Amino acid sequence: MKLIKKSVPGVLLVDDDLAVLRLDKTGSENRVYLSFAFITHGPGYRILPSVLLDDWGNEVSYSDLYDWIRDNGLRFPRAELFGFDPAGLQTQYFLRDLELFAEYPLYAFAEKDSTPDSAVLVRAIFLPGEAVDAPQRVATPDDIEFPLSKTDVEWWRVNLRQNDLEFLRKPPPGVV
Length: 176
Known about the structure:
Blueprint: E1 6-15, E2 18-23, E3 31-36, E4 38-39, E5 46-53, E6 59-61, H1 64-72, E7 80-84, E8 90-94, E9 106-109, E10 120-121, E11 124-129, E12 136-138, E13 154-159
Parallel strand pairs: 2-11, 11-13
Antiparallel strand pairs: 1-2, 1-3, 3-9, 4-5, 5-6, 5-7, 7-8, 9-10, 12-13
């Protein structure tokens, strides 16, 4: 079973337990490989998808899978989603077991052929720009395509040279 991954231009910044995707819209050859997880009802287990089988055994895979679940998930609760948990173990859930409307936890891989257990959970996405002096929290930009637009991450406008992640560790104003 092969994990579904989407290639995007960018760099993965990792500092201990904190991972950030810095997108690059300048045509860079640097790539990061993303997997959008689904969450189960109740305990909140996560599944990084590989393939879906609908009620008639038809296979849905790759980028079609997210669109298919968004458009048909409620009508096909017995469809089965196969994939991996973040530890790399194969797993399977019926769609009725999943939070179909929740934002996707975003996992990233440095290499196209990375194994599922090498995934890192992404907390934020940096949108670099030259005119940015200090990091600015922003809403998901309108030009970001689905399923990346539906991920459970913070979006930040940052300077092109922003590599320091410490500001993400500080609590927001008013929080002690």
